[in-house]
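Case study.
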Amino acid sequence: METVVSGIRSTGRLHLGNYFGAIKNFVKMQKGNNCFFFIADYHSLTTHPQPEDLQRNVKQVLVEYLAAGIDPEVSTLYVQSDLPEVAELYLLLNMSAYVGELERSTSFKDKIREQKDNVNAGLLTYPVLMAADIIIHKADKVPVGKDQEQHLEMTRTFSNRFNRMYDIEFFPEPVAYNFGEALVKIPGLDGSGKMGKSEGENNAIYLSDTPEIITKKVMRAVTDAGPTEMNQQMPQEVENLFVIMKTVSSEDTVAHFESLYNNCKIRYGDFKKQLAEDIVKFTNPLREKIEELESDDAYLKKVTKMGAEKARESGRKTVNEVREIIGFGPR
Ligand code: TYM
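After joint prediction, the assembly is written out as follows.
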């Protein structure tokens, strides 16, 4: 049995990128693996949320995990800060993570551009905390989207370095995983890069968006004036919408619109209408479950309590072993 670990930052509602990049695979991996899925609330502090928002966002992500089909009886589903041992492992790993390599990480470079007035040390050491999350359960596989690939590479670097430093085969080398396929990157609706929370409200479709909002966002998505030559290459913004269509629509539907595009007969209004309909069809059952779970505080509390206990059992064992290897001795 292999160990699977992955997490999602609690910075707001989940979008289609989170779903197809990560959570869909979490659900598929539950059977036959030892799975740990968590809500990364320590990580969310790099953007300085208000205490009320922090609580609300953790609950939101928990509800969406459950609505998507994570079974808390099968997987260990927990809140990152309920496993304080991860903070200790993070501290220990920081002693052998070098500032130079952390400064070179693409996500750090992006963040210093995005939040110039808040370049905190947590952003710099973000990949160290992420490595701690993963190796605290000695993960083999980490289901994530394409944007996390470099973080996984850094995790392997920190694991190997620890093993070499103490001359012991202790931490495995976890890999970013998508069933042998390339890691997924779901684009946003604004014609540029990936679907994400920091790219503006209208760039992302959230699992909890109503059909009206979804339709409005899709109909407003960026396109060009339309093809003028047969089989011409699609501009990025149109290709992006096709990528999204491939995740929610049938193969026939995709083929139909591709053929219209290639024959210069596509009408973007019809194309977007179909896309919006198929997204709504896909998200509707999820949204209904989200709404149902939101009011069940007793159940949510039970789930996080159970998750915290299971996660701590695993985390405490690893950290005790690490302390011993380093020379502190067990607690
Ligand atoms: P986060 O919260 O930004 O995203 C959660 C998961 O969703 C994936 N994802 C996407 N996949 C495809 N296309 C997109 N547009 C898209 N947007 C997001 C991400 O790749 C990720 O898998 N650092 C992590 C959270 C984290 C973590 C970990 C993950 C903390 N510790 C340990 C795995 C293991 C993050 O910020 O993901």
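Observations recorded in class. The CA atoms of residues 221 and 257 lie 16 Å apart. The chain has two domains: 2-184+297-326, 197-291. We will return to this complex in the next lecture.
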